[in-house]
């Protein structure tokens, strides 16, 4: 429910444009601890897809599914803009209701905001509000859902009169916990009110928990005072929340169709009460969108409905909700339809069939979004069902998965296969089955409590306690109870409830929440094991690597974790509880490796690499020896690396390779030096700009850059000029919308469109690097000067033309600024991030002072793979031979003209890649500060000749996988 406190609302906000407003909203969410900084990009990406303007001067910004990994907690923050903002779709906005949602909670928020969209005065009141409480009262409205569905109906009840029918309806609402005993008593005390057309009404507001409507119909012909009885409505009233239910009864009476309820089934009753006439054409369409019918697909649906030219109504088929006009965006959003739910469309008259066909087609096509089919028979599996045989994993070949917990393990495999549960689908005694299920749940809870007491850590105990709460979830028990009432066995009904709930979790776009399906199945198997008297297999008494479909926390708690050398799962992700527990227990883990890992034989040897996210079954003697060596040396290397962190970075033969640190904050320069960094190889200056609501002035920039230079104490600083655009927009630097911003205005090409901004930054860098005396201040005349080496690097340069344009500005500034007030040890270079700059390195090398290869973007652009793509990112490997050849070309061109080359991407800290890069001739490696000691240690492990051999070997391969395999065997 959307509840707002004064702390959630910011009054009197101001922004130059909608982008600045969006950034302010992102900063507010981040300050509140709801999101991390990366969520800001998701907000902008969502707007690029479709406007989040809702209506009545309200926009509801929320991130893309991909950005939900940055959400720490679900929440809402409201920013009021009294002067208004021109949104990019032409509307005027006075309030941003900014949502941080971990799954599809924003659908509920949308539903709760629809009430303000029907009030035309809201826009003005939002603009004029002077207190947070006033805005909260405008936006917050507790939505009480009145209940009417198949479960509230009591059809075909053996009653003797309308009083007994009324009591049957009241009892049904009592069973559903909609009312307390007082409501039933009130109904018993009064006489039902005759409505006409064979209908009566019994109502009370006493003991009502949830407003609801029941209809009880007789199982045979029944008359009251010689009038035939069709049925008795029982209405649980509460405030105004039941008003809609009452209006639907009145509408039914006005239509004259009340008689059709006699002997009708639940679907017919719900259809008539929703407003569908007997003569209406109807069509069911299932929502396939991963995040349900949120604003964007809802708009598409409304547009299709409006194009038909006839009145069309729509409702949720599963419940008894009122049918609403399919042409009303607020009403359609208000349905809150989620993936898998069916919409019931209805229309009358000429063209109705064609109109419904058009809507059905639009929904099936995804309403403008990519969708996957909903196959209930596939998505809700019965345990123990035979599956197609899987192809075993080949021996001595790496098999990829998801790196979940770092470390290396070599041990025999122990495959914990999900046991087969054999049980009947049907049972004759529902009461006995219900008792069996309740007893099994009680026994399962007792087992979990015992495991909580035995758990070796707080995190394990917390997760197991959560499982106890799952077992006590009344909705699970009620869902299973419905199956039992329908004649299912306790086992069948329970597992069906578990699979339904787990599948609903898996369909959530938020990865963190989707992966909790493993917890549900773990709970379900525990109870199923009790019901079927099946115990899980015991693990071996020697060290092993545990392999399972998707390990549950209780499995970890029950096993002897002292013997578990590693975890390997077929399903799950890096944020699944299996991964969380592995990290908590310090166990290397690879997850999501696919079902084929379950074909491994117990006792077969396995190498598990939790850093690279891969496993090697039945490794060769050479591969095993190499892995053992890594394992033995791992701890020794870490300790020795730290002790030797201040030594010069050299190979074993003495070849010098500088190791610097990558920074995004000048305040962290001192920490980098303390970790042994020999300089800063990449200062991402855009983070300085992104930290300010407006462009930082000259003095601000000078102060920030000087802080880093002072901490470096004479070590070089490589500062990358402002690199924004693409995934890093600036609120105060409006940019036109681009179909593909990563191939548009970004880096140096964007900076050159605002040369005054670039000039201010270059001036600040030059002034900050002015020589200083021993105290760090500018020296007086005649005092010895201490130089501050400055290397200015231009991002995203495609050719020498862009470099010359920036060089002209630098040359002019050097002439303008007195030598004593500016850098004297200066180099101007380029970042190699696009293939053209590597291909043209020879022409660039004639004019630049140095190159720094940004392997992250270079790999992305060379391989045409978005490194954040959920399916392809694993293939974006900087060790791809195409990327290595571009680095080789850059180094050759640079060295031919006496220029140096650095690498500042993630590849520079990859232990496998370090000798390859050195062998290619790279002069500097710039890595995260924490990696500096380890990279220095890695350099000491090989000599230059070996590095050149490894580089030649890598270049001779055809794929990145082949490169890594060849280097590992070597």
Annotate the secondary structure layout:
Elements: E1 9-10, H1 18-31, H2 39-49, E2 53-55, E3 58-59, E4 75-86, E5 92-100, H3 105-117, H4 122-128, H5 132-139, E6 154-157, H6 162-175, H7 181-189, E7 193-196, E8 199-204, E9 212-218, E10 223-224, E11 227-228, E12 231-236, H8 243-255, H9 266-273, E13 281-286, H10 295-307, E14 312-316, E15 324-325, H11 329-334, E16 342-347, H12 352-364, H13 376-379, E17 399-400, E18 402-405, E19 408-416, H14 430-454, H15 458-471, H16 474-485, H17 490-506, H18 511-514, H19 517-532, E20 544-548, H20 553-558, E21 564-569, H21 577-585, E22 589-591, E23 605-609, E24 614-617, H22 621-643, E25 658-663, H23 669-674, E26 680-684, H24 686-690, H25 698-712, E27 717-720, H26 747-751, H27 755-768, E28 790-794, H28 800-816, E29 826-832, H29 835-839, H30 841-845, E30 850-853, H31 855-863, H32 881-896, E31 900-903, H33 913-919, E32 924-928, H34 932-939, H35 944-955, H36 960-969
Parallel strand pairs: 1-4, 3-5, 6-9, 8-12, 19-20, 20-21, 21-22, 25-26, 25-32, 26-27, 27-28, 28-29, 29-30, 30-31, 31-32
Antiparallel strand pairs: 2-3, 4-5, 7-8, 9-12, 10-11, 13-16, 14-15, 14-16, 17-24, 18-22, 19-23, 23-24
